[in-house]
Each structure stands twice: as structure tokens, then as C-alpha cells.
Amino acid sequence: MIRLVHLLRRAPGLSQAEFSAALRDRHGPVVASVQTDLDIVRYVQTHADPARQGLDRAAAEARGGMQPSFDAVAEYWWQSEASLEQALDSPAGKAAAERLVVAERGLLDLAASPMWFAIEYPQVSSGLVRTVAKLRSGMMRIHFALQPLSSLTEDEARLYWLGTHGPLVRSHAAARGTTAYNQVHRRECALLSAFTGPRGTDAEPYLGHAEAWFERPSGLEPPAEMRAAMTAAIEDEAKFIDWDRSTILVGKELVFIDREWAL
Questions:
Q1: Nearest-angstrom CA–CA distance, 205 and 257
Q2: CB-count exposure of residue 77 (10 Å: 0-12, 13-18, 19+)
Q3: How far out from the chain centre does Cα 58 lie?
Q4: Average pLDDT, stretch 55-71?
Q5: Cα distance between residue 58 and residue 12, in whole Å
Q6: Angle at Cα 134 formed by Cα 87 and Cα 23, nearest 5°?
Q7: What are the pLDDT digits (tens) for 79-99?
Q8: If we measure between CA atoms, which residue out of 62, 189, 205 comes closest to residue 147?
Q9: Coil vs helix vs strand at 30
């Protein structure tokens, strides 16, 4: 299964509330309407959680500063590159792909909204189905898009992220109250130009992103074991992540397409 990750900057002149409403009420249904033509098996939007209690800002400050959060994240899943390529080669798929671009114009700053293909490496899961940070729940999703230190090659950073940092985070999952945690690594794919080209996207893609789901904190001081786990994770991130070029969004998820049965 492959995933297209699209970090979204809203178009100039739109407030955050206007953008979120349009993304949810107009763009989401358009994507859902072309799911068969493009053979999309899953599509999810992540919007900033209005009750996030400054957690994204606190996470950035704990790391000495990070890039500003994006306004939202949109993610598409396909069964395989071959299934997506076949869909894009069909007349219906070509028309559907163009319809998505038209729906994004005036809503997104397309040039400043990076996109890339990725594959996911599940690390922690508390159930047999995907965790979702639904609007009317205490669950929140952390989306941490990261870039490697300049002293490392991308391959070196990926290897450390997967082989060293992943096991460390897994070892502290219970202490941090982690419900689920995935690493989602960027994957080079020739099909990307079919998406970035029509949008004029020139924003640099990220190495990938880490995603984790937690119950929203009550506002009380976290217990000592949770603080220790967070400190250990941040200290290890400093060995391979360039925080100045990375960004965090704390959000809620809206699931518009879920055809996991098709996989």
C-alpha cells in the first residue's frame, strides 16, 4: 500500500476557520466522489485540534523551535503504485485528477503545499483497526513532518529513524500513553509529477513523518515516567532530525474514504 501525503497551506486571504470549513465541506466530498475513478482506498484530512491546548507550540519550544505548523494535512492511500498508475491512465482517472486540482485552486497555496509518496512502518498499535482521532473523542493525532540533519545522508537518517529511534519510542509507548505510532517514510515515485506538475508545487518534500495518537491530556502535570519518556525521545531526535526544518501539527481526523476491505 502506498500513501500520498499532502501538507496544506491555505490560500492568502482565507482565515483558518474559512479554510477548514471549505476543506471539510467542499473539498472532502469532491475527493469522495472520485474514489472509484482514481481507485482511492482511503482518504483522511487532519485539521488542527481546537482543544490542543498549545501542545504543538509546546512541542516546538521543547525542541528549541520548529517551522510553523501547516494548516492541515490530506492523505490518500492506494493499494499499489500499479493500481494508481492504471487509474491515472484511464480517461475517467485523468478527469478525476483534474477535478481535484480545480477544487484546490483558491483554497490552497498550491506552490507552498508539499506532497510526496510514502510507505508506512507500523511501530505501536493497541488494536486490530486503525486508530482515528475523531472530532467527538479525547483522542488527538500528532503529525511530525521531519527533515534530517545536514550531517547525515537521507539513507543514514532513515536507517537511524527506523532501526534506533523506533525501538526507543516503542519501549516508552506505555509510559507516554501512546495508542498507536507509525513511521511514514518518503518513497521516490515517478507518479509524483502527475500530482505536483498540475499544481505547480515547488515546496521541498520532507524525509517523511512520524504519526502518533494519544488521549488529550487533562491539563494536569504529566507523571514522572511520561516526562522521562518524552525527554528520552527528544534527546534521541537530536541525533538525526533537523528541528529547524521540521514541523508538528496536533489535530483531529476526518475520514472521507475507508475501503480497507479492498486491500
A1: 24
A2: buried
A3: 19
A4: 94
A5: 26
A6: 55
A7: 999 999 999 999 999 999 999
A8: 205
A9: helix
Higher pLDDT, 42 or 55: 42
CA-CA distance, 205 to 3, in Å (whole number)? 14
Q: Contact at 8 Å (CB) between 6 and 69? A: no
pLDDT value at residue 204: 96
CB of 191 within 8 A of CB of 81? yes
110 close to 200: Cβ distance less than 8 angstroms: yes
The closest of 254, 82, 117, 90 to 195, measured between CA atoms, is 117
Tell me the average pLDDT across 33-40.
98
Cell numbers representing residue 220 in the block: 494536569
| Residue that is written with C-alpha cell 505536483 in the block | 196
To the nearest whole number, what is the mean pLDDT of the chain?
95
260 has a pLDDT exceeding 80? no
Half-sphere exposure of 56 (CA within 13 A, CB side): 25
115 strand-pairing partners: 6
Count of Cβ atoms closer than 10 Å to residue 155 Cβ: 9
DSSP H/E element including 166: helix 166-171
pLDDT of residue 225: 87
Task: Give pLDDT, residue 220.
Answer: 60
Q: How many C-beta neighbours within 10 Å does residue 148 have?
A: 22
Contacts of residue 121, defined as CB under 8 A and 6 or more positions apart, other chains included, come to: 162, 166, 182, 183, 184, 185
- Angstrom distances, CA of residue 124 to CA of 28, 35, 99, 169, 172: 28, 29, 36, 9, 10
pTM for this predicted structure = 0.95
Share of the chain above pLDDT 70, in %: 97
Q: How far apart are CA 39 and CA 93, in angstroms?
A: 8
* Residue appearing with cell numbers 518518503: 186
